[in-house]
Write a structure and sequence with these properties.
Jelly Rolls, 303 residues, Phage tail protein beta-alpha-beta fold, 28% helix, 3 domains, 34% strand, alpha+beta, three-stranded mixed sheet
Length: 303
C-alpha cells in the first residue's frame, strides 16, 4: 500500500483503482472499524449565534488571509486527524461487548471467560463484556441458548422479558417476541419476571406467553431437544411452532384459513424439511404447499 493512501482515503481523494487496491490491504479493515467507531463520538455543544457574532467581529478588525497549504502540510493535517481517531477510538472500541450471532438454520458454541459453555440456537445473539467479566458477570440474550455453567461460577442472563440468576447449573432460556421460557436441567436457577422471583429446581420450567405466566410441564430430559436437531413443544400456540420452523429451516412461512392460536403438542426435525412439514401438519389437521423458499400452511375455507 502506498504511504499516502490513508491520507487520500480520509480526504475522499482516492481514485476507483486506488480505492480497490487500498481495500485489499491488511490495514484497511482496522482503519474502517476506527472510522465507524469515531462516527459515534459526539461533538461538543456550541452556541451558533455567539460563534457567528464572533466571526463577524473578527472580519471587521482584520483582512481575510488565504493560505495555500502545500501537499506535505495537507498530509500532516490529515495524519493528525487519523492519529486522533486511532487514540480516541481505541478507548471506545475497548468498551464494546463481545457479540456472537447465529443466522437461520445455524447453531454456535461459545465459551465464556469462566469456561462456562453456551450453545446458541438459530436466529439468536449473545453479548457480554470479556474485559469486565470479573466486575460484571452478565450476559445478554436475544433468542434461545442452552447454558452449562462452570461449577462454582455465578452470573446473570438478561433478556428483554426477564432475567435468570445461576450458580453452577445447566439450563435453557428462550426469549422470542411474546414468548419467554426458562427450563432448569441441573441445579437451581432463579427467574425474575415482572419484578417477581421464581426458583426453578431441576426438571421444572417457567413460561410466559404474551406477558401471561403459563403453567409448564415437568421434564425428565437432560438437555433441550433442539441440541439434538429436534424442536419439541407441549401445548404451545401454533404460531410459535411455525416461527421456530422458519428459523430452523430458513423458509418463509405463510398461513391461510388457520387458527394459529390453536395449541400444538409434538416435535419436528430441524434437518429434514419434508418430515418436519408432515410432523406439523398432521397433528394440526392442516395442509402445506412447499414452493422454493416459501411454504404455505392452509386449511379449506369454511363455507
Amino acid at each position: 500500500m502506498q504511504e499516502n493512501y490513508l491520507a487520500k482515503w480520509l480526504n475522499n481523494e482516492l481514485s476507483e483503482v486506488e480505492l480497490a487496491e487500498f481495500k485489499k490491504s491488511e490495514e484497511y479493515a482496522s482503519y474502517q472499524r476506527i472510522l465507524d467507531a469515531s462516527n459515534d463520538l459526539e461533538a461538543p455543544e456550541f452556541n451558533e449565534d455567539e460563534v457567528l457574532m464572533a466571526v463577524n467581529n473578527r472580519r471587521t478588525l482584520q483582512q481575510t488571509k488565504v493560505v495555500q497549504l502545500n501537499p506535505f502540510k495537507k498530509f500532516m493535517k490529515v495524519a493528525a486527524v487519523a492519529a486522533f481517531l486511532v487514540i480516541g477510538s481505541y478507548f471506545y472500541i475497548n468498551t464494546l461487548d463481545e457479540k456472537v450471532t447465529t443466522q437461520y438454520a445455524e447453531n454456535r458454541e461459545v465459551v465464556l471467560p469462566d469456561n462456562s459453555e453456551v450453545i446458541l440456537n438459530a436466529d439468536s445473539q449473545l453479548s457480554y463484556s470479556e474485559k469486565k467479566w470479573d466486575e460484571q458477570r452478565n450476559v445478554k440474550l436475544r433468542g434461545e441458548a442452552f447454558f452449562k455453567v462452570a461449577k462454582g461460577k455465578r452470573f446473570i442472563v438478561a433478556t428483554d422479558a426477564g432475567s435468570v440468576a445461576v450458580l453452577g447449573t445447566q439450563f435453557n432460556v428462550e426469549n422470542r417476541e411474546g414468548f419467554f421460557e426458562v427450563t432448569c436441567f441441573e441445579g437451581l436457577v432463579s427467574v425474575t419476571f415482572e419484578g417477581k422471583e421464581t426458583k426453578l429446581p431441576a426438571g421444572s420450567s417457567f413460561m410466559a406467553i404474551n406477558g401471561q405466566i403459563v403453567e409448564s410441564q415437568i421434564t425428565k430430559a437432560e438437555e433441550p431437544s433442539w441440541i439434538h436437531s429436534e424442536s419439541s413443544f407441549k401445548s404451545i400456540p401454533l404460531k410459535y411452532v411455525l416461527q421456530e420452523f422458519e428459523r430452523q429451516h430458513n423458509l418463509r412461512v405463510e398461513t391461510e384459513y388457520i387458527d394459529t392460536e390453536q395449541l400444538y403438542t409434538g416435535s419436528f426435525s430441524n434437518t429434514d424439511t419434508n418430515l418436519a412439514l408432515k410432523s406439523i401438519s398432521m397433528p394440526s389437521q392442516i395442509k402445506f404447499k412447499l414452493e422454493g423458499d416459501k411454504v404455505l400452511f392452509y386449511a379449506q375455507k369454511a363455507e
